[in-house]
Amino acid sequence: MDPKERFLGVREEIIDSGYPAELWRLTETFALSYLQKGRIDFDVPHTRAVVSWGHRLVTDYNERVRRGDIIDDGKEIDSTVIITAAWLHDIGYYGEFDDVASPEQVGSKKEKHMIVGAKMASEFLHKEALGMLSKEQIRQIVGLIRVHDDLGKIKTMSETILLEADTLGAMDISWVKPTFKGQQALDYLSRDRTKERHEIFKTPLGRESRKEIVDRFRQFIIERDFNGIDPIGKIG
């Protein structure tokens, strides 16, 4: 199924679960107004993937909490906060890149995009969403955006869920094809920062999904860029 068409089903599922339809309309419109001017074939599909994964992760986590399967924290996570933060988490990259960007270019802008994105989100939500979100929810959303790419500051379960959704949403080829090519793409999987992100994963679904998503990403690169021949002699 085409990812755009598939995302319509995600939207319907999220709204049916209780997410305010008007908040979705406003947030999607606002986010896309910046993301559509960003990296071609990445910013928009990546964000949709993060929204989808955020919904899946928080829904699964909350269901496990209700069943008593998770007792460490023992409380459900606000799914509206997660979904809204997922929509807005990368808007701070607006204006930083041309059509594409190297891993080094992206890395150099990580701190700035969290600061700028949090400010943009705060202004938007206080202006447009106060009737649909509480001030505490807005505070949480802005806080998530401010730390979502700062691995040393990921502490709460909400922060962890957004990090997991962001990580999986960058590698899930069913939503977004890798924009990095060849060895650069394979290096993305093996770099220390990627490994550090994976070590932070806590949710059962995130941990269960991680290896499959990574394997599919890697196999896609091998097929697309290396004619199906693993450059280090090992497939998958």
Supply database-style keywords.
single chain; 236 residues; mainly alpha; Hypothetical protein af1432; 67% helix; globular
Structure notes:
There is one protein chain. With about 240 residues, this protein is mainly α. It has a single domain (about 5-225), classed as Hypothetical protein af1432 (Orthogonal Bundle), CATH 1.10.3210. The protein has eleven helices and no strands. The protein has helices at about 5-15, 20-35, 45-65, 80-90, 105-110, 110-130, 135-145, 155-170, 180-190, 190-200, 205-225. Helix 6 packs antiparallel against helix 7 (about 135-145). The protein starts with a helix and ends in an 11-residue tail after the last helix. The model has no long low-confidence stretch (mean pLDDT about 90).
SSE layout and pairings?
Layout: H1 3-16, H2 21-35, H3 43-67, H4 79-88, H5 103-108, H6 110-128, H7 135-147, H8 157-171, H9 182-190, H10 192-200, H11 204-225
Helix pairs in contact: 1-3, 3-4, 3-8, 4-7, 6-7, 8-10, 8-11, 9-11
